[in-house]
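Let's practice the habit of predicting before peeking. Look at the sequence and jot down your guess about where helices and strands might fall. Then scroll down.
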Amino acid sequence: MVEKLASFCGSEEPLGRCLQRQGLITPAALAKLFRHQLQTGLYSLFALESGQFSFLPNVPMPYREMTGLSKGATAAVLEALQQLKLEQRPEKDLPEPDSCFWRTSTELPLFKLSALEWGILEQVSPSRKLTALAQALGADLLEVRYACARLAKLGLISPCEGPAASRLELSKSIAEEVNPEPVRERLGARVPGLQDEGGPVKPSLVSRLATLLKGMREK
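Done guessing? Here is the structure:
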């Protein structure tokens, strides 16, 4: 079937791009295949301690094996080294598949994140387990656990602990950083400085208050 479909593609057109143009493969599936090619064909080489290689000139391009997607050489090397470092950690140190995380801040991170880490940051929820998160992102569960471990180390997400109600309250605290008006209505009569004659509550003040309340709950 693939050989028959390939006959409709150009002689120098990547098969993946051709199949996507014909509506036979989704962009998400093509991206997943590209990540698998990087994993098996490039990233695994960084785990080798020694070896030999040679360059062969005038080798025809394997268009029937290409997805049509690309990644810069520097980005690919950095991602491979980063993944190698993570894979050296024992799997027992990774978050459990049924664990949940919450985003500690709605501000944009200052760190350079991968596409998977951005996806986790956007879809992580105190009510969503990592198994469901991996399924929603169309990613490998182990890769999601590695990415969550790194995001947690950077302080961008935090594991949920305690009753579900407490986790939902933490999520509301972060949501209120974006829309602080409900906090003004509940706390304005008791917290000095929140009932000024004009102007909205500063998000930074609400963020500090949420952090303080979280610390009190943990104690």
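How did you do? The radius of gyration is 23 Å.
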